[in-house]
Amino acid sequence: MSEIVAHLTALLRAGGPWLGPILAGAAFAEALVMIGVFVPVTPALLAIGAAVAGHMMGPWLLVWVMGGAFLGNAASYELGRSLQARGVAAPRMPAKARAVAQDLFLRHGAVAIVVARFLGPPATVAPFLAGWSRLPRGRFLAASAVASLLWPLATAAVGFVGVWLLRR
Hints:
Blueprint: H1 2-14, H2 19-31, H3 42-53, H4 61-85, H5 95-117, H6 121-132, H7 137-167
């Protein structure tokens, strides 16, 4: 386990001054509908947490990830909203599933955005469906801000705690 952490930490350090923008771009891509499934940022967040626990880097990189995730969520939301306004059905979704998504976001929109951020693939689809379902922009942006702050912190905390436990 410690070899994996060391390898990921070395990869993170190799990014040098571009590491923050690279992580922001990756978090942005991970938050985009359909594209995000192919761009996992979670391993990098675990490595950042481990590197912070090992005093090898500071937690400032998480700010870049937070910003990228927030902007990616906003882009997916706006795409969903734009397609719905033009009368385009949500891609590859049966009518019943679209109705369930609309009901979910109308009833529990903000909570659904925060919870989905922690569920992997649903995190890439939820902002799009929120926009397509016409979740009010203000509610979406507030929920997305909370999710974009909590997700990197919680994920990096797992890496941090893992290294901390290994050292005990």
